[in-house]
Amino acid sequence: MENITFVRLKKHLVLKYTLWCFVFGPIPSFGLSPVHTYNTDVAISATDLIPSQMADLWNPLSSAMAPEDCDGDGVSCEQEEKDGTDPNDPCDFILEHQNCTPSEAWKKDDCDGDGVSNGKEKEDGTDPLDPCDFVLEHQDCSISEAWKKDDCDGDGVSNGKEKEDGTDPLDPCDFILEHQDCSISEAWKKDDCDGDGVSNGKEKEDGTDPLDPCDFILEHQDCSISEAWKKDDCDGDGVSNGKEKEDGTDPLDPCDFVLEHQDCSPSEEWKKDDCDGDGVSNGKEKEDGTDPLDPCDFVLEHQDCSPSEEWKKADCDGDGVTNEDEKEDGTDPLDPCDYKPESVTLPQTGDYLDADCDGDGVTNEDEEEDGTDPLDPCSFLLESQTVAPDSTWNAADCDGDGVTNEDEKEDGTDPLDPCDYKPESVTLPQTGDYLDADCDGDGVTNEDEEEDGTDPLDPCSFLLESQTVAPDSTWNAADCDGDGVTNEDEKEDGTDPLDPCDYKPESVTLPQTADWEALDCDDDGNPNGPDPDPLAANASDDYGSTPALTEVAINILENDDYLPNNDGNNLGETNLSRTGGDAVGTVSFDNETGFVTYTPTVEESNSTVTIVYQVCNVLPDPSVCASATIYIEVGANAIDAVDDAYSVTTDQDGVIEGSDVLLNDTLNGEPISIDDVVLTSTATAELTVNPDGSISVTEGTVVGTYTIDYTICDAGNATNCDTATVTVTVTEGMGGNVIDAVDDTYTDEDIDDSDVLLNDTLNGQALTLADVILTSTATEELTINPDGSVTVAPGTEVGTYTIDYTICDIMDVDNCDTATVTVIVTTVPPPPPPDAIIDAVDDAYTATVGEEGMIMDSDVLMNDTYDNFAVTLADVILTSTPTEELRVNEDGSVSVLPGTPEGTYTITYTICDILDVDNCDTATVTVEVTQGEDNVIDAVDDTYNTAITGGLIANSNVLENDTLNGELVSLGEVELTSTPTNELSIEDNGTVRVADDASPGTYTIEYTICEVDNPDNCDTATVTVVIEAIEVNQMLTPNGDLKNDFLFIRGVEYIKSSKLRIFNRWGTLVFEGDNYNNVNNAFDGRVRGKSAISVNEYLPAGVYFYIFNYETEQGSFTDSEYIYLSR
């Protein structure tokens, strides 16, 4: 029999068990029992059950076993036993272990004493056991004394006190500082209630208010500041705290801020304050737009408070007077030029030194250094002017010369010098010292010159009788009239220093001026300059010689004071006329050239005749004239045998057809006949001059050149003779030379000594390359070289090969013959050599934006190799495909294409063995294009040669070779500047001008070009000008030593046209030529032209006279002088 244990169940368990049995049937034991099926029609509604048991109705076991909560705190007694809490104390439990419904009494109770009932805390989700975990607004019962003494938020004010104060006991930053009555928490100390960046704890130590964001010590900020604090403005200076932190200024100091950073409204207190102590409140300075932090930036009339002592002792305008003293003096402390000099107690500094109080353009500082008065506009040094003068100074006239100071500055004259001004700039009355001065030093005061109507600035414009003061040394040493006599010497000589034709020649000590040289004091038409005697007209005797019946030309004016009418220097009109003499031949005077021509009669042979002539300048009234005598020595007839030349062939012997040695011979300049002369000649082995003047070639004369002389004598004067030479060239006749090209045979073993011409002949004789022209067309295997050798192509297989060649007579290219060369190759060719090692190596270059075109010194092949040797274009084939920015050129250079911007670009190229196009290598070129610093400007030196002595050099332009970034410059891109020298100047357009008085020589001048868009980008170059005189050499020595063998005329390249005539000492024309050029149209000591002497006759040593007429760009000129011929 089983043991049965009876358990006494509580009332609610009995009720549940009864319900169980009613529904499911009785349970025989507490163990497992068989399953019973029980059907009932009884319907039980849940509403019939006890409400408190409804939750367990459908879990009868659970209901039977449900826990009991002894104290109503929602935690079962069994659980509290486990937790170790008191099951009979409703306030001793673990909240997380609540496993049943708390009682109503518990809900109304307040376990933690925080004034919020347990039930309300359950609803709020706060801890009913934590007196500091509650919702303040939900306090619904009395708070405990313990809670009142506690400090939930750790702010040092007890909860009870906070209740009294109406502050939040849960907010550590909501409290009354004076009511702190307990210890503050560490968390509160680290917090920053007012967001000022200083922790609460630090503020407690400092004694500042942790609730006031503007009560703190700046240096003690030890945590992050709040956004609200950043936007606040603690010191009221109009700059937010956050901005002041960024600026490094003090957010608690209303006068420590950055004015430009004011980002909020300043406080009224700040507006009334005066931060800079200048006597104007901050608010007023804000209205005025002045700086409230600058004690010297204010509106004087707006001073509305007392200035500081520091301001009073300061000197805002730097004039040396304190601000306080200026206030007392009634002067402006902000105006450095408004002060009383007697009040100066401080060093003058700052704005005062930079100012120009008197407006004269010189700063006060410079005036102090110069020792001039900074308050006197006419006491200054001109070279110290560094600022713009004021309008008062500009309108004034410091030196009294009648020109305003401003106009003198514009004119470049001295406003302090009454004698340095431009008369055309006078706009004011001239006064004071100016009237007593003698500006030009001519001995006449300015006032007297004004009365006389002369120029007080021109030392040569005066009335001699008005000289009342001593002339200065400059005037004494000068020469007003340009006659070469100083003014002082003219005064001593009693001559007029203003009359260029009133002087004593013996007193001339200075060069006479160009104006004087252009005058004609003696009225002979010849200007003073070239006139041998400028004060008197003279004519001199002349001499000449000529054979009878032969015209002679004599320049009779070359040694007179008069000039021919064709001389551009002639100021008058020259007239030549005969007034006497015994000459009976034909006389002709040429007023244009100054020459007389005379043809003597036969009867005058071997005699001297005279012609008396008068030369006059007929423009004056009366005419100015002089007379002289011409002496002409008349000689015998002139006979001239002229050399001849003929050519024949070996087929032509006997008389040369058409030959006549007399054909080009003359007597007195006229062709001669056999009746006029006696012809004689001595025959040679090859040639004979026949009595009729023809030439015969002896039969059998071989090819060559032969000569024979002959002589002709005047039939009327057997002693009057001349000799000439006949040259005959004999060439090969029509029979022709026999040329024979003979076949040749070689093997590859003896080919090195081959010569196809070795067995060829010309006229049966062995020939050379000098005799023939050798031609041949190469085959694939054979080539006949220009020297006649034969070459076998490398790799030619064993076999027999032929090639033809042709030789032609070099003297007769139609006389030719052809032969065949046979070459037997017996040797197997060696194997082809291995491929050469070809290596293309990468390259890198730099270029500048705007520098388009080829990169300087670029060559992609420079570092490439071919069998370890440097590559050349003879070794390889270079190929490359251009990109949008780069191109590799055929010569290996690299070009940057136009418009390429800054950046790094690459391009590849390939080189292939020229002997094996499959043997290649590729490399990459990298070009870095950078932005250049400045455009590259390059002024290049220039050199010019000219014969002119005044004016522009034709076709000169110094800019034509200058560049900007490699491109030729234009005047729109650059500014051209240059300082003229005594001899040279450069015009604005780049042309070069030579001074009128420049002497022949070599001169230089510098010029500078600067980029218009960048005036600091400049370059300078030098222009060299060689001024060459057109000058006839005075000597020639035609002796074959290649030195002075002809008459050299310097500067002929500058001459447009010319005529040179040379006469012997008797006036006979011995040379005449147009457009003399020192080369093939030159005088080498032989007769040429229409001369009375035999043409080509070598002239004897002696003195000769020339007349050289020439024309240049500057006009027409005549040069005449003696020359010496030496042999």
From TrEMBL:
Record-linked InterPro entries: T9SS_type_B, TSP3_bac
The UniProt record lists the keyword Signal: yes
Stretch forming the signal peptide: none
The organism's place on the tree of life at top rank: Bacteria
Entry keyword set: Calcium, Secreted, Signal
Annotated localization: Secreted
Predominant localisation class: secreted
Residue ranges with Polar residues bias: 382-394, 464-476
Acidic residues composition bias: residue spans: 69-83, 322-332, 353-373, 398-414, 435-455, 480-496
Stated name of the protein: Gliding motility-associated C-terminal domain-containing protein
Lineage: Bacteria, Pseudomonadati, Bacteroidota, Flavobacteriia, Flavobacteriales
